[in-house]
Amino acid sequence: MSKYVISSSPHLRDSVSTRSIMQDVCIAMLPACVVGVLMYGYRSLIILALSVAAAVLSEWFYCKAAHTKNTIGDFSAVVTGMLLAMNLPSTVPFWMPVIGSVIAILLCKCIFGGIGQNFINPALAARAILSLSWASQMNTFPQPAFFNLAGVDAVASATPISGAANGGFTLWQLFIGAIPGTIGETCKLALLIGAAYLFWRKVITWHIPAAFIGTFAVCYLIATGFDVHEVLYQVLSGGLILGAFFMATDYSSSPATPKGKLVFGFGCGLLLFIFRYCKSTPAEWCSFAILLMNVVSPLIERVTGIKSFGEGKMHA
Question: What is the pLDDT of residues 185-229, one digit of tens each?
């Protein structure tokens, strides 16, 4: 008679690990980072290096101080550092990515228990804190070196959201990143290449990006009287593409169920539309839309989660 071994779940395993997933995310972000360095110069590379180094060292020091297992080998700190740097202009002082990474790792991740326990995206939270603390530095965007036809070094304004207000950039310029902006958000082509890699590796699913971008586009389509050009302009402007594929899909701070992901993406798209369409200041609101949905993500998961067998209301 064969013997049966009874053990706790999980019963099915594969080769996917936190380390492999984080490494895939790093690879997916490389095209946008490379383009950012080429567009905005050597300062972009220094900011990327400082941000990643500060994130890794912060996590290492925390693990040492807390006498917990060192987790820098899972590459999650590297992802946080890269994401934060991609959301910074190359004109910021070199101390700013260091402070941002320390905030992201210590205040927004480790203090809640480390990877998988944080309820908000650490890189986005750090970016929001930096934006509120040093608004002038965070809202000064350099002209790309390859396409600086105007002959100016930087523009002190938000990233291009309205064509009329920001020099009338073409859709092609927005797509290839020939505009002022942060290191990693301007070249939509590079971001889409990275997103395709994440889909191929099955790191992310279509639910959040499609619901996020689709809701935003439909809302703007209705609000502008079906002006397709303006809708495309809005979709390709700011941090929507970066946020939809690389930040809103964060495992720890977004729902795990397909229905929950759709609701989460819908909420992100609706909030971003409201913020942009009714904005009173020239801030880029994508980060705040995602962060607000991060806060309600546990509620979304609870409502849309799959109920266990036999779970239901008790009848008298």
Answer: 999 999 999 999 999 999 999 999 999 999 999 999 999 999 999
By three-state DSSP, how is residue 2 classified?
Answer: coil
Q: Which residue type is seen at 46?
A: I
- Interval 124-147: pLDDT, tens: 999 999 999 998 899 888 888 765
* Residues 248/254, Cβ–Cβ less than 8 Å: yes
113 CB-near residues (< 8 Å, 6+ apart): none
Q: For the chain, what are the domain ranges?
A: 18-303
Q: Quick one: fold of 18-303? A: Ammonium transporter fold (1.10.3430)
Q: What angle do CA 213, 220, 161 make, to 5 degrees?
A: 80
232 CB contacts (<8 Å, ≥6 apart)?
A: 171
pTM score of the predicted model: 0.88
DSSP 146: G
